Protein backbone atom coordinates (compact mmCIF):
# COMPACT_ATOMS: atom_id res chain seq x y z
CA UNK A 1 0.00 0.00 0.00
CA UNK A 2 3.03 2.26 0.08
CA UNK A 3 4.77 3.88 -2.81
CA UNK A 4 7.61 6.09 -3.91
CA UNK A 5 6.48 9.69 -4.04
CA UNK A 6 9.34 12.09 -4.71
CA UNK A 7 8.92 14.15 -7.86
CA UNK A 8 12.42 13.97 -9.25
CA UNK A 9 14.56 16.05 -11.59
CA UNK A 10 17.31 14.67 -13.78
CA UNK A 11 19.71 14.87 -10.85
CA UNK A 12 17.65 13.23 -8.13
CA UNK A 13 15.43 10.24 -8.88
CA UNK A 14 13.55 8.10 -6.42
CA UNK A 15 14.09 4.36 -6.65
CA UNK A 16 15.13 1.19 -4.91
CA UNK A 17 18.54 -0.31 -5.74
CA UNK A 18 20.94 -2.92 -4.47
CA UNK A 19 24.44 -1.51 -5.00
CA UNK A 20 25.66 1.13 -2.57
CA UNK A 21 26.46 4.52 -4.11
CA UNK A 22 29.12 7.00 -3.05
CA UNK A 23 27.72 10.35 -4.20
CA UNK A 24 26.19 11.20 -0.83
CA UNK A 25 27.21 9.87 2.57
CA UNK A 26 24.51 7.89 4.38
CA UNK A 27 24.32 9.16 7.96
CA UNK A 28 21.54 7.64 10.04
CA UNK A 29 19.78 10.03 12.45
CA UNK A 30 19.79 8.79 16.05
CA UNK A 31 16.62 8.00 17.99
CA UNK A 32 16.51 6.55 21.49
CA UNK A 33 13.97 4.08 22.84
CA UNK A 34 13.58 2.22 26.14
CA UNK A 35 13.72 -1.45 27.08
CA UNK A 36 11.76 -2.03 30.30
CA UNK A 37 11.97 -4.95 32.73
CA UNK A 38 9.34 -3.69 35.22
CA UNK A 39 7.33 -0.54 35.82
CA UNK A 40 9.77 2.28 36.52
CA UNK A 41 12.75 0.18 35.46
CA UNK A 42 13.69 1.00 31.87
CA UNK A 43 17.05 1.19 30.07
CA UNK A 44 17.65 3.64 27.23
CA UNK A 45 18.76 2.15 23.90
CA UNK A 46 20.51 4.20 21.23
CA UNK A 47 18.73 3.36 17.99
CA UNK A 48 19.06 4.84 14.52
CA UNK A 49 16.59 5.68 11.77
CA UNK A 50 16.98 4.61 8.14
CA UNK A 51 14.92 5.66 5.12
CA UNK A 52 13.40 2.92 2.96
CA UNK A 53 15.30 2.39 -0.29
CA UNK A 54 12.19 2.94 -2.46
CA UNK A 55 12.52 6.68 -1.78
CA UNK A 56 16.21 7.00 -2.68
CA UNK A 57 18.24 8.24 -5.62
CA UNK A 58 19.11 5.33 -7.93
CA UNK A 59 21.81 6.03 -10.50
CA UNK A 60 24.41 4.32 -12.62
CA UNK A 61 27.14 2.89 -10.41
CA UNK A 62 29.83 4.95 -12.14
CA UNK A 63 28.09 8.30 -12.43
CA UNK A 64 24.97 10.40 -12.12
CA UNK A 65 22.63 9.04 -14.80
CA UNK A 66 19.29 7.96 -13.38
CA UNK A 67 18.21 4.34 -13.48
CA UNK A 68 14.62 5.40 -12.74
CA UNK A 69 12.90 8.73 -13.42
CA UNK A 70 9.26 9.55 -12.74
CA UNK A 71 7.72 6.10 -13.05
CA UNK A 72 9.92 4.82 -15.87
CA UNK A 73 13.04 2.67 -15.85
CA UNK A 74 16.12 3.52 -17.92
CA UNK A 75 15.83 0.76 -20.55
CA UNK A 76 19.58 0.75 -21.22
CA UNK A 77 20.72 0.42 -17.61
CA UNK A 78 17.74 -1.74 -16.61
CA UNK A 79 17.02 -3.97 -19.59
CA UNK A 80 16.05 -6.77 -17.20
CA UNK A 81 15.95 -7.56 -13.47
CA UNK A 82 19.50 -8.85 -13.10
CA UNK A 83 21.24 -6.20 -15.18
CA UNK A 84 19.48 -3.45 -13.25
CA UNK A 85 20.94 -4.73 -9.98
CA UNK A 86 24.39 -4.88 -11.57
CA UNK A 87 24.29 -1.44 -13.19
CA UNK A 88 22.57 0.69 -10.58
CA UNK A 89 23.60 2.09 -7.19
CA UNK A 90 21.46 3.31 -4.33
CA UNK A 91 22.73 6.45 -2.62
CA UNK A 92 22.66 8.18 0.74
CA UNK A 93 19.89 10.52 1.87
CA UNK A 94 19.60 14.08 3.13
CA UNK A 95 17.01 13.17 5.75
CA UNK A 96 15.86 16.61 6.78
CA UNK A 97 16.46 18.60 3.60
CA UNK A 98 15.06 16.21 1.00
CA UNK A 99 12.67 14.01 2.95
CA UNK A 100 11.44 16.12 5.89
CA UNK A 101 12.60 13.54 8.44
CA UNK A 102 13.84 14.88 11.79
CA UNK A 103 15.00 12.68 14.67
CA UNK A 104 15.84 14.29 18.01
CA UNK A 105 16.32 12.44 21.30
CA UNK A 106 13.44 9.95 21.59
CA UNK A 107 11.36 11.67 18.90
CA UNK A 108 10.88 11.27 15.13
CA UNK A 109 8.93 13.77 13.04
CA UNK A 110 7.85 12.92 9.49
CA UNK A 111 6.65 15.80 7.30
CA UNK A 112 4.23 15.08 4.48
CA UNK A 113 5.48 17.39 1.69
CA UNK A 114 9.09 18.55 1.60
CA UNK A 115 10.45 20.93 -1.02
CA UNK A 116 14.07 19.88 -1.47
CA UNK A 117 16.84 21.29 -3.65
CA UNK A 118 16.16 18.80 -6.44
CA UNK A 119 12.70 17.41 -5.78
CA UNK A 120 9.38 17.62 -4.03
CA UNK A 121 9.10 14.62 -1.71
CA UNK A 122 5.77 13.17 -0.59
CA UNK A 123 5.67 11.00 2.53
CA UNK A 124 8.27 8.55 3.83
CA UNK A 125 8.84 5.12 5.35
CA UNK A 126 11.56 4.61 7.95
CA UNK A 127 12.88 1.73 10.08
CA UNK A 128 14.46 1.48 13.53
CA UNK A 129 18.04 0.20 13.41
CA UNK A 130 20.16 -1.55 16.03
CA UNK A 131 23.35 -0.31 14.36
CA UNK A 132 24.32 1.12 10.97
CA UNK A 133 23.92 -2.20 9.15
CA UNK A 134 21.19 -4.03 11.10
CA UNK A 135 17.52 -3.45 11.84
CA UNK A 136 16.40 -3.74 15.46
CA UNK A 137 14.37 -6.95 15.83
CA UNK A 138 11.60 -6.45 18.37
CA UNK A 139 10.13 -9.57 20.03
CA UNK A 140 6.63 -8.76 21.22
CA UNK A 141 5.19 -12.13 22.28
CA UNK A 142 4.31 -13.77 24.52
CA UNK A 143 3.14 -11.40 27.26
CA UNK A 144 4.87 -8.26 26.03
CA UNK A 145 3.76 -4.73 25.30
CA UNK A 146 4.76 -1.89 23.00
CA UNK A 147 4.10 1.75 23.93
CA UNK A 148 4.73 5.08 22.19
CA UNK A 149 3.54 8.68 22.18
CA UNK A 150 2.07 10.25 19.06
CA UNK A 151 1.09 13.73 17.90
CA UNK A 152 -1.10 13.66 14.80
CA UNK A 153 -3.09 16.79 15.51
CA UNK A 154 -2.42 18.15 12.00
CA UNK A 155 -2.98 14.87 10.15
CA UNK A 156 -6.33 15.27 8.32
CA UNK A 157 -8.56 12.98 6.25
CA UNK A 158 -6.74 10.97 3.59
CA UNK A 159 -3.42 10.68 5.45
CA UNK A 160 -2.06 7.75 7.43
CA UNK A 161 0.59 8.04 10.09
CA UNK A 162 1.38 4.32 10.35
CA UNK A 163 3.57 2.66 12.98
CA UNK A 164 3.76 -1.10 12.53
CA UNK A 165 5.91 -4.24 12.46
CA UNK A 166 6.88 -6.50 9.54
CA UNK A 167 8.91 -9.73 9.36
CA UNK A 168 11.81 -8.33 7.33
CA UNK A 169 15.32 -9.77 7.46
CA UNK A 170 17.53 -8.04 10.03
CA UNK A 171 20.22 -7.29 7.42
CA UNK A 172 17.79 -6.19 4.71
CA UNK A 173 18.36 -9.41 2.76
CA UNK A 174 22.15 -9.16 2.19
CA UNK A 175 22.96 -12.66 3.44
CA UNK A 176 20.13 -14.31 1.50
CA UNK A 177 20.69 -12.46 -1.77
CA UNK A 178 24.31 -12.01 -2.85
CA UNK A 179 23.46 -9.27 -5.37
CA UNK A 180 22.15 -7.06 -2.56
CA UNK A 181 25.21 -4.99 -1.62
CA UNK A 182 23.27 -2.15 0.05
CA UNK A 183 21.36 -3.95 2.80
CA UNK A 184 19.72 -2.45 5.86
CA UNK A 185 22.12 0.51 5.80
CA UNK A 186 20.16 1.76 2.78
CA UNK A 187 16.72 0.51 3.87
CA UNK A 188 16.40 -2.58 1.66
CA UNK A 189 14.29 -5.72 2.09
CA UNK A 190 10.79 -4.34 2.69
CA UNK A 191 7.80 -6.68 2.74
CA UNK A 192 4.28 -6.62 4.15
CA UNK A 193 0.95 -8.43 4.00
CA UNK A 194 -0.13 -6.64 0.81
CA UNK A 195 2.81 -8.38 -0.95
CA UNK A 196 3.64 -4.99 -2.52
CA UNK A 197 4.58 -5.02 -6.20
CA UNK A 198 5.57 -1.34 -6.36
CA UNK A 199 9.01 -2.15 -4.89
CA UNK A 200 11.73 -1.56 -7.45
CA UNK A 201 14.06 -4.25 -6.13
CA UNK A 202 13.14 -7.56 -4.48
CA UNK A 203 15.53 -10.39 -3.50
CA UNK A 204 18.52 -8.42 -4.75
CA UNK A 205 17.10 -8.09 -8.27
CA UNK A 206 15.20 -5.39 -10.09
CA UNK A 207 11.43 -5.53 -10.52
CA UNK A 208 11.75 -4.11 -14.04
CA UNK A 209 10.27 -6.93 -16.10
CA UNK A 210 6.57 -6.42 -16.70
CA UNK A 211 6.65 -2.98 -15.04
CA UNK A 212 3.37 -1.10 -15.56
CA UNK A 213 3.34 2.62 -14.89
CA UNK A 214 0.64 3.89 -12.56
CA UNK A 215 -2.23 5.69 -14.26
CA UNK A 216 -2.69 8.15 -11.38
CA UNK A 217 0.73 8.35 -9.70
CA UNK A 218 3.53 9.90 -11.72
CA UNK A 219 6.20 8.23 -9.56
CA UNK A 220 4.89 4.69 -9.08
CA UNK A 221 4.20 1.48 -10.95
CA UNK A 222 3.74 -2.25 -10.48
CA UNK A 223 6.18 -5.00 -11.44
CA UNK A 224 5.88 -8.76 -11.94
CA UNK A 225 7.09 -9.52 -8.42
CA UNK A 226 5.90 -8.66 -4.91
CA UNK A 227 7.39 -9.06 -1.43
CA UNK A 228 5.28 -10.79 1.24
CA UNK A 229 5.61 -11.17 5.01
CA UNK A 230 3.60 -11.02 8.21
CA UNK A 231 2.49 -7.56 9.35
CA UNK A 232 1.27 -6.26 12.70
CA UNK A 233 -0.32 -2.84 12.28
CA UNK A 234 0.01 -1.36 15.75
CA UNK A 235 -1.16 2.01 14.53
CA UNK A 236 -2.74 3.26 11.32
CA UNK A 237 -4.25 6.63 12.03
CA UNK A 238 -4.97 10.27 11.38
CA UNK A 239 -6.78 12.76 13.60
CA UNK A 240 -10.16 11.28 12.62
CA UNK A 241 -9.82 7.48 12.79
CA UNK A 242 -7.45 4.76 13.90
CA UNK A 243 -7.17 0.98 13.49
CA UNK A 244 -5.04 -1.74 15.09
CA UNK A 245 -4.81 -4.73 12.75
CA UNK A 246 -2.91 -8.04 12.71
CA UNK A 247 -2.27 -9.52 9.23
CA UNK A 248 -1.26 -13.19 9.18
CA UNK A 249 0.70 -14.96 6.43
CA UNK A 250 1.01 -18.66 5.70
CA UNK A 251 4.76 -18.04 5.29
CA UNK A 252 5.88 -15.56 7.95
CA UNK A 253 9.25 -14.32 6.66
CA UNK A 254 10.04 -12.27 3.55
CA UNK A 255 9.03 -14.20 0.43
CA UNK A 256 8.94 -13.08 -3.22
CA UNK A 257 5.70 -13.72 -5.12
CA UNK A 258 4.75 -13.59 -8.80
CA UNK A 259 2.19 -11.48 -10.62
CA UNK A 260 -1.46 -11.49 -9.64
CA UNK A 261 -0.70 -14.56 -7.52
CA UNK A 262 0.69 -12.08 -5.00
CA UNK A 263 -2.80 -10.91 -4.08
CA UNK A 264 -3.19 -7.75 -2.02
CA UNK A 265 -3.76 -4.16 -3.10
CA UNK A 266 -1.65 -4.40 -6.24
CA UNK A 267 -3.22 -7.50 -7.85
CA UNK A 268 -6.43 -8.30 -9.70
CA UNK A 269 -7.28 -11.04 -7.18
CA UNK A 270 -6.94 -9.50 -3.72
CA UNK A 271 -7.07 -12.85 -1.92
CA UNK A 272 -4.74 -14.92 -4.13
CA UNK A 273 -1.54 -14.54 -2.13
CA UNK A 274 0.37 -15.93 0.83
CA UNK A 275 -0.90 -13.22 3.17
CA UNK A 276 -4.12 -11.82 4.58
CA UNK A 277 -4.58 -8.36 3.00
CA UNK A 278 -7.59 -7.29 5.12
CA UNK A 279 -6.51 -8.26 8.63
CA UNK A 280 -8.73 -8.44 11.69
CA UNK A 281 -9.05 -4.77 12.58
CA UNK A 282 -10.31 -2.88 15.59
CA UNK A 283 -11.38 0.60 14.54
CA UNK A 284 -13.51 2.17 17.31
CA UNK A 285 -15.72 4.05 14.85
CA UNK A 286 -16.22 0.92 12.73
CA UNK A 287 -17.05 -1.04 15.88
CA UNK A 288 -19.90 1.35 16.60
CA UNK A 289 -18.44 3.92 19.01
CA UNK A 290 -18.31 7.23 17.15
CA UNK A 291 -17.54 9.28 20.29
CA UNK A 292 -14.30 7.61 21.37
CA UNK A 293 -11.47 8.81 19.07
CA UNK A 294 -10.98 12.20 17.41
CA UNK A 295 -10.57 15.88 18.13
CA UNK A 296 -12.36 16.76 21.35
CA UNK A 297 -13.42 13.13 21.97
CA UNK A 298 -12.44 10.70 24.75
CA UNK A 299 -9.05 10.17 23.13
CA UNK A 300 -8.47 13.75 22.02
CA UNK A 301 -6.38 13.82 18.86
CA UNK A 302 -5.91 17.59 19.01
CA UNK A 303 -2.99 16.93 21.37
CA UNK A 304 -0.36 14.29 22.08
CA UNK A 305 -1.29 11.00 23.74
CA UNK A 306 0.20 7.59 24.54
CA UNK A 307 -0.72 4.34 22.78
CA UNK A 308 -0.22 0.99 24.58
CA UNK A 309 -0.58 -2.35 22.77
CA UNK A 310 -0.34 -5.61 24.73
CA UNK A 311 0.15 -9.12 23.36
CA UNK A 312 -1.26 -11.39 26.06
CA UNK A 313 -0.60 -15.12 25.86
CA UNK A 314 0.56 -16.98 22.77
CA UNK A 315 -0.58 -19.08 19.86
CA UNK A 316 -4.20 -19.07 18.74
CA UNK A 317 -5.30 -17.86 22.17
CA UNK A 318 -3.18 -14.67 22.03
CA UNK A 319 -5.13 -11.51 22.85
CA UNK A 320 -4.21 -8.06 21.51
CA UNK A 321 -5.24 -5.37 24.00
CA UNK A 322 -5.20 -1.59 23.61
CA UNK A 323 -4.99 1.25 26.12
CA UNK A 324 -4.44 4.98 25.77
CA UNK A 325 -2.94 7.43 28.26
CA UNK A 326 -3.77 11.13 28.08
CA UNK A 327 -3.67 13.87 30.73
CA UNK A 328 -2.47 11.28 33.24
CA UNK A 329 -5.53 9.07 32.72
CA UNK A 330 -5.35 5.47 31.49
CA UNK A 331 -8.16 4.99 28.96
CA UNK A 332 -9.18 1.42 28.03
CA UNK A 333 -10.05 0.78 24.40
CA UNK A 334 -13.70 1.33 23.46
CA UNK A 335 -16.11 -1.59 23.63
CA UNK A 336 -17.67 -3.05 20.49
CA UNK A 337 -21.23 -1.87 19.95
CA UNK A 338 -21.85 -4.21 17.02
CA UNK A 339 -24.57 -6.78 17.67
CA UNK A 340 -23.04 -10.22 18.10
CA UNK A 341 -19.48 -8.89 18.52
CA UNK A 342 -18.30 -8.41 22.09
CA UNK A 343 -15.26 -6.95 23.78
CA UNK A 344 -12.61 -4.29 23.26
CA UNK A 345 -9.63 -6.47 22.29
CA UNK A 346 -8.67 -8.63 19.32
CA UNK A 347 -8.95 -12.39 19.87
CA UNK A 348 -9.77 -15.33 17.62
CA UNK A 349 -13.31 -15.22 18.98
CA UNK A 350 -13.59 -11.48 18.23
CA UNK A 351 -12.35 -12.02 14.66
CA UNK A 352 -14.78 -14.92 14.12
CA UNK A 353 -17.71 -12.79 15.26
CA UNK A 354 -16.63 -9.59 13.49
CA UNK A 355 -16.09 -11.22 10.12
CA UNK A 356 -19.50 -12.84 10.33
CA UNK A 357 -21.24 -9.63 11.40
CA UNK A 358 -19.61 -7.56 8.66
CA UNK A 359 -19.76 -10.26 5.96
CA UNK A 360 -16.04 -9.77 5.27
CA UNK A 361 -13.73 -12.30 3.63
CA UNK A 362 -11.91 -14.14 6.42
CA UNK A 363 -8.39 -14.62 5.06
CA UNK A 364 -6.89 -13.80 8.46
CA UNK A 365 -7.93 -17.23 9.71
CA UNK A 366 -7.10 -18.97 6.41
CA UNK A 367 -3.50 -17.74 6.57
CA UNK A 368 -2.89 -18.95 10.11
CA UNK A 369 -4.77 -16.36 12.12
CA UNK A 370 -3.64 -15.47 15.62
CA UNK A 371 -1.29 -18.49 15.84
CA UNK A 372 0.84 -17.33 12.89
CA UNK A 373 0.68 -13.72 14.08
CA UNK A 374 2.03 -14.83 17.47
CA UNK A 375 4.85 -16.76 15.76
CA UNK A 376 5.87 -13.65 13.85
CA UNK A 377 5.81 -11.47 16.98
CA UNK A 378 7.82 -14.02 18.95
CA UNK A 379 10.39 -14.43 16.17
CA UNK A 380 11.27 -10.73 15.96
CA UNK A 381 9.94 -8.01 13.66
CA UNK A 382 11.22 -4.69 12.28
CA UNK A 383 9.61 -1.44 13.44
CA UNK A 384 8.29 0.77 10.63
CA UNK A 385 7.31 4.42 11.11
CA UNK A 386 5.74 6.08 8.09
CA UNK A 387 3.46 8.74 6.64
CA UNK A 388 1.57 8.21 3.39
CA UNK A 389 -1.46 8.96 1.23
CA UNK A 390 -3.40 6.44 -0.80
CA UNK A 391 -3.62 6.31 -4.62
CA UNK A 392 -5.69 3.14 -4.53
CA UNK A 393 -8.62 3.95 -2.23
CA UNK A 394 -8.01 7.51 -0.94
CA UNK A 395 -7.67 6.12 2.63
CA UNK A 396 -11.45 5.78 2.79
CA UNK A 397 -11.06 2.27 4.27
CA UNK A 398 -9.60 3.98 7.37
CA UNK A 399 -11.58 7.19 7.86
CA UNK A 400 -14.78 7.29 5.75
CA UNK A 401 -17.60 5.16 4.31
CA UNK A 402 -16.12 2.14 2.53
CA UNK A 403 -17.10 0.69 0.16
CA UNK A 404 -18.51 4.06 -0.92
CA UNK A 405 -21.59 2.56 -2.58
CA UNK A 406 -22.79 1.02 0.70
CA UNK A 407 -25.08 2.54 3.32
CA UNK A 408 -22.82 3.88 6.12
CA UNK A 409 -25.31 2.59 8.69
CA UNK A 410 -24.63 -0.99 7.55
CA UNK A 411 -22.38 -2.68 10.16
CA UNK A 412 -18.73 -2.42 9.16
CA UNK A 413 -19.16 0.16 6.39
CA UNK A 414 -18.75 3.39 8.39
CA UNK A 415 -15.10 3.78 9.42
CA UNK A 416 -14.88 7.51 10.14
CA UNK A 417 -16.36 10.96 9.63
CA UNK A 418 -14.44 11.91 6.47
CA UNK A 419 -16.43 12.57 3.31
CA UNK A 420 -16.31 9.91 0.58
CA UNK A 421 -14.89 12.61 -1.71
CA UNK A 422 -11.93 13.18 0.63
CA UNK A 423 -8.43 11.73 0.48
CA UNK A 424 -7.71 12.23 -3.22
CA UNK A 425 -3.89 12.39 -3.24
CA UNK A 426 -3.70 15.43 -5.55
CA UNK A 427 -6.00 17.32 -3.16
CA UNK A 428 -4.28 16.16 0.02
CA UNK A 429 -0.82 16.95 -1.34
CA UNK A 430 -1.81 20.49 -2.37
CA UNK A 431 -4.10 21.36 0.55
CA UNK A 432 -2.30 19.59 3.43
CA UNK A 433 1.34 19.92 2.44
CA UNK A 434 2.31 21.03 5.95
CA UNK A 435 0.85 17.94 7.63
CA UNK A 436 3.17 15.87 9.82
CA UNK A 437 3.25 13.14 12.45
CA UNK A 438 5.57 12.82 15.45
CA UNK A 439 6.32 9.48 17.13
CA UNK A 440 8.20 9.57 20.43
CA UNK A 441 9.01 7.90 23.75
CA UNK A 442 8.98 4.29 22.51
CA UNK A 443 9.02 1.68 25.31
CA UNK A 444 9.01 -2.12 25.11
CA UNK A 445 8.75 -4.61 27.96
CA UNK A 446 6.69 -7.15 29.90
CA UNK A 447 3.00 -6.51 30.45
CA UNK A 448 2.25 -3.32 32.46
CA UNK A 449 5.92 -2.23 32.55
CA UNK A 450 5.82 0.66 30.06
CA UNK A 451 2.94 2.86 31.23
CA UNK A 452 1.03 3.81 34.35
TrEMBL record:
Record keywords, A-Z: Carbohydrate metabolism, Cellulose degradation, Glycosidase, Hydrolase, Polysaccharide degradation, Signal
Ranges of Polar residues composition bias in the record: 419-433
Record-level GO BP terms: cellulose catabolic process
Keyword Glycosyltransferase: no
Record Pfam families: Glyco_hydro_7
Gene3D superfamilies: Glycoside hydrolase, family 7, domain (2.70.100.10)
Region (Disordered): 406-433
Extent of the signal sequence: 1-17
InterPro entries attached to this UniProt entry: ConA-like_dom_sf (IPR013320), Glyco_hydro_7 (IPR001722), Glyco_hydro_7_sf (IPR037019)
EC number: 3.2.1.-
Molecular function via GO: cellulose 1,4-beta-cellobiosidase activity
Entry similarity comment: Belongs to the glycosyl hydrolase 7 (cellulase C) family.
Protein's UniProt name: Glucanase
Originating organism: Lojkania enalia
